[in-house]
Amino acid sequence: MSNFSNIINSDKTVLLDFSAEWCQPCKILAPILKEVKGQIGERIIILKVDIDKNPKLANSYRVQSVPTLILFKNGEIKWRDSGVRTTQEIINLINQYSQ
């Protein structure tokens, strides 16, 4: 967990993707996030968190539905929402909050 904390508190923008194997919208979001990473590259760290394998982490961020995306900068939550977003919407959010 300390490694996770180090990542979240780094000066890089971090996007947490809370998901589950059984979640259909999560499966739709996966290739979108891959495309986001391809376009933004090293400016962002994208971490996928399976809520069934990491229930304590999901509970600590009060994740109640999947997919839930949480954007961090310097350990601070800058944005969060549940549901599927388009590649461009996610890129715009990252650009807006990673300054």
Structural class: alpha+beta
What is the alpha-carbon Rg in Å? 13 Å
The fraction of residues assigned to DSSP E strands is 25-35%
Residue-averaged pLDDT: 94
Number of strands: 4
Short description:
Helices cover 41% and strands 27% of the residues. It has 99 residues and is of the alpha+beta class.
Can you describe what's shown?
This protein is an alpha+beta fold. The protein has one domain (2-97): Glutaredoxin. 41% of the residues lie in helices and 27% in strands. The protein contains 4 helices and 4 strands. A 4-stranded mixed β-sheet has the order 2-1-3-4. A hairpin with a 2-residue loop joins β3 and β4.
Question: How is the topology of this model organized?
Answer:
Elements: H1 2-8, E1 13-19, H2 24-40, E2 44-50, H3 55-60, E3 68-73, E4 76-82, H4 87-97
Parallel strand pairs: 1-2
Antiparallel strand pairs: 1-3, 3-4
Helix pairs in contact: 2-4
